[in-house]
Write a structure and sequence with these properties.
InterPro entries: A-D-PHexomutase_a/b/a-I, A-D-PHexomutase_a/b/a-I/II/III, A-D-PHexomutase_a/b/a-II, A-D-PHexomutase_a/b/a-III, A-D-PHexomutase_C_sf, Alpha-D-phosphohexomutase_SF, PGM
Structural class: alpha/beta
Keywords: Cytoplasm, Phosphoprotein
GO biological process, one term: carbohydrate metabolic process
CATH superfamily of the largest domain: Alpha-D-Glucose-1,6-Bisphosphate, subunit A, domain 3
Number of helices: 19
Shape: globular
Largest sheet: 7 strands, mixed
Helix content: 25-40%
Main location: cytoplasm
Pfam family, one: PGM1_C_vert_fung
Strand order of the largest sheet: 2-6-5-3-4-9-8
Number of strands: 27
Radius of gyration: 24 Å
CATH class of the largest domain: Alpha Beta
Bound molecules: 1,6-di-O-phosphono-alpha-D-glucopyranose
C-alpha cells in the first residue's frame, strides 16, 4: 500500500525506562538510537506531548544539530512528527546544521516556543560514537528540570506516537517549503535558514566589528589560530572571523563539519586539541582557540601555548567587561559561576561590587537568573563562557570577547592574565575526570563519601601531605535554592572546604552516555606574588593526594589514574 504524502498516522509503541535527560538532554550511543525500536520517536513524542496542545498548535520551533552521524536521520523524524503533532512552522539550519548558540539565538529571534538540538556536545561522533537530543524552551535555554521531568514521565508510559511518515523535506535548499496535511493542523511550513548570517548579525550588535577588523587585519594586526575540530562551528568561524573580520583563511582550521569529527573527540582541552596546543607553542600566533562539536564550549590559548583556565577566562572578561559595547549599552546586572568553578570571578565581583551567583552545574540555572534580569555574564570550569544575549554558553562570543580585550588593552593574552592575577590574586584550579566507571561503583563511592563527610568528626579533621596541613572547615552536599522561583536543587556535588579556602569537590557527570564519569575538582587561592606563576599541578598536588585518599577513588574504581586532567 502506498501512503498519501499528506497522511498522519498514530503508531503504537512501548516505553523505555531510561529516557531521563541529563545535565543537558538525552545522550546515548548512536547504536541505542538505531537498534532500539522507536527509541528516538518515543523521546521526540514525549517532548512534543510535554507542550500543551494550545501552545503547540500552529507554533514555531527551531531545529538544528552539530552535524554528527545520525543528525539527518533524526531531523527527518523530528520534522515528520512535528507536522503530525500540530507544530505550525519549523525553522531549520541549512543542511540540518546549527550551532547550539545559534539555535538559542534563533529561538529568541523567531519567538519560537522552543527548539530541538541534536548533539552530544564534546563526545565522539560516528556510528560507534554518541548522539544526543535536547529540548530548549522559549527563552532559548535548556529546559528547566520541571520540563525535563515531565518529558521523562511521559516517556515512561508512552503508548503511541504521531507521525507523517511520507513527508519529505529538502534540508539543502534555503527558503520556505509548505505542506498540506490531512489533519486539522494545516498548513505546515518548514523554513531552511542561513543560521550563520542570523548569528553573525547578533554578534555585530554586541561587538565593535570595525575595531576587531583593525585588530585582525589592520596595519599592526595580530595572528590567531582557531580550531573548529570538524564540529559545527567551522562555517561560522570562516564567515565571521575570516571573511568579515579579515583574518587570513589559514587562521581557521578543521572547519568542515564531519559526521565523525575526523575520528577525534570534538572536545576543546589539552588532550583533544593537542595539535592546536603544539602549533601555538611555535609562537607564530597571538591567540588560539578551539571549540567543541556544537560550538558552545571554548578553550583560549595565548602565544607559546599559554593556557587560560576557563574559570580565569570568565573572570578576565568580567574585569574588562565594559570594553565590550554590549555591556556599555546594557550595563551589568550580575556575574555567575557554577559551584565547582574556581572563585576567580568572585574576586572580580567583590572589587566591582557586582552581585555574584553560585549555581549548580548546568546552563539552565544561569538562564533563570538572566530571564529575571539578575545575571549578565557567567562561566563554568567546563570551558563554557557566555552572557545574557542568548541562553546558552557561546564559544565564538568568548573569542570575540577576548579579542575585544586584547584590542582595548594592547597586551598579550599572557600579559592580561598575569596582570589579572597580580590585581586579584590567583585561583589555582584542576579537574580530574574518571570516565566509564561502573555506575554502581561510582554511586556507592559517592554515598560512602557523603556519609563520611557528614559525620560530626569530619569537620576539623586535619590532613597532612609533606609540610602542608589542611584542616576541614566545612563539608556538605551542595544545595541550591533558585533565588527567582525558590526551587530547591539538592545533591549537586560533595564539597569539602578547608580553613585556607581551598576546596575539593566530587561530582558525577550528567552528560556521559555510558557508565559514570566521576569528576574531582580542586582549587586553592594564592595571593603571594612569589608563588603566583607556579604550575597548578605542582601547587595543587597535596590536595589531589588528599582527594584521592579520602575517596579511595583508585581502589574503588580500579582506575589507576584519571582519563583527563584539565
Ligand atoms: C552541558 C551544560 C553545561 C555543563 C556541562 C557539563 O554542557 O550545558 O552547563 O557544564 O554539560 O556537565 P557534566 O559535568 O554534568 O558532564 P555541554 O557542552 O556538554 O552541552
Amino acid at each position: 500500500m502506498t501512503l498519501d504524502p499528506r497522511s498522519v498516522l498514530t503508531l503504537p509503541t512501548a516505553p523505555y525506562p531510561d529516557q531521563k535527560p541529563g545535565t543537558s538532554g538525552l545522550r546515548r550511543r548512536v547504536l541505542v538510537f538505531q537498534s532500539k525500536r522507536n527509541y528516538l520517536e518515543n523521546f521526540v513524542q514525549s517532548v512534543y506531548s510535554s507542550i500543551d496542545l494550545r501552545d503547540r498548535q500552529g507554533s514555531t520551533m527551531v531545529v538544528g544539530g552539530d552535524g554528527r552521524y545520525f543528525n539527518q536521520t533524526a531531523i527527518e523524524v523530528i520534522v515528520q512528527m512535528a507536522a503530525a503533532n500540530g507544530v505550525g512552522r519549523l525553522v531549520i539550519g541549512h543542511h540540518g546544521i546549527m550551532s547550539t548558540p545559534a539555535v538559542s539565538c534563533l529561538i529568541r529571534k523567531y519567538k519560537a516556543i522552543g527548539g530541538i538540538i541534536l548533539t552530544a556536545s564534546h563526545s565522539p561522533g560516528g556510528p560507534d560514537g554518541d548522539f544526543g537530543i535536547k529540548f530548549n524552551t522559549a527563552n532559548g535555554g535548556p529546559a528547566q528540570e520541571a520540563v525535563t521531568n515531565r518529558i521523562f514521565q511521559i516517556s515512561r508510559t508512552i503508548e503511541e506516537f504521531a507521525i507523517c511518515p511520507e513527508l519529505r523535506v529538502d534540508l539543502d535548499t534555503l527558503g520556505r517549503q509548505m505542506f498540506d496535511l490531512e489533519n486539522k493542523f494545516k498548513p505546515f511550513t518548514v523554513e531552511i535558514v542561513d543560521s550563520v548570517e542570523c548569528y553573525a548579525n547578533m554578534l555585530r550588535n554586541i561587538f565593535d566589528f570595525a575595531a576587531l577588523k583593525e585588530l585582525l587585519s589592520g596595519e599592526n594586526h595580530i595572528k590567531i589560530r582557531l580550531d573548529a575540530m570538524h564540529g559545527v562551528l567551522g562555517p561560522y568561524v570562516k564567515r565571521i572571523l575570516c571573511e568579515e573580520l579579515g583574518s587570513p583563511a589559514n587562521s581557521a582550521i578543521n572547519c568542515v563539519p564531519l559526521e565523525d569529527f575526523g575520528g577525534q573527540n570534538p572536545d576543546p582541552n589539552f588532550n583533544y586539541a593537542a595539535d592546536l596546543v603544539e602549533t601555538m607553542k611555535s609562537g607564530q600566533y597571538d591567540l588560539g582557540a578551539a571549540f567543541d562539536g556544537d560550538g558552545d564550549r571554548n578553550m583560549i590559548l595565548g602565544k607559546h601555548g599559554f593556557f587560560v583556565n576557563p574559570s580565569d577566562s570568565v573572570a578576565v572578561i568580567a574585569a574588562n567587561v565594559f570594553s565590550i559595547p554590549y555591556f556599555q549599552h546594557n550595563g551589568v546586572r550580575g556575574f555567575g559561576r557554577s559551584m565547582p568553578t574556581s572563585a576567580a570571578l568572585d574576586n572580580v565581583a567583590r572589587v566591582t561590587k557586582i552581585e555574584l551567583y553560585e549555581t549548580p552545574t548546568g546552563w539552565k540555572f544561569f538562564s533563570n537568573l538572566m530571564d529575571a534580569g539578575r545575571l549578565s555574564l557567567c562561566g563554568e570550569e567546563g570551558f563554557g563562557t557566555g552572557a545574557d544575549h542568548i541562553r546558552e554558553k557561546d564559544g565564538l562570543w568568548a573569542v570575540l570577547a577576548w579579542l575585544t580585550i586584547l584590542a582595548a588593552r594592547k597586551q598579550s593574552v599572557e600579559g592580561i592574565m598575569k596582570d589579572h592575577w597580580q590585581r586579584f590574586g590567583r585561583n589555582f584550579f584542576t579537574r580530574y575526570d574518571y570516565e566509564e566507571v561502573d555506575l554502581d561503583v561510582a554511586v556507592e563511592m559517592m554515598e560512602d563519601l557523603e556519609l563520611m563527610m557528614l559525620e560530626k568528626a569530619f569537620v576539623g579533621q586535619r590532613f597532612a601531605v609533606g609540610e602542608q596541613v589542611y584542616q576541614v572547615e566545612r563539608a556538605d552536599n551542595f544545595e541550591y535554592t533558585d533565588p527567582v522561583d525558590g526551587c530547591i536543587y539538592r545533591n549537586q556535588g560533595l564539597r569539602i572546604t578547608f580553613t585556607d579556602g581551598s576546596r575539593i569537590i566530587y561530582r558525577l557527570s550528567g552528560t556521559e552516555s555510558l557508565g559514570a564519569t566521576i569528576r574531582v575538582y580542586i582549587d586553592s587561592y594564592e595571593k603571594d606574588p612569589s608563588k603566583m606563576f607556579q604550575d597548578p599541578q605542582v601547587m595543587l598536588a597535596p590536595l589531589v593526594t588528599i582527594a584521592l585518599k579520602i575517596s579511595r577513588l583508585h581502589e574503588r574504581t580500579g582506575h589507576s589514574g584519571p582519563s583527563i586532567i584539565t
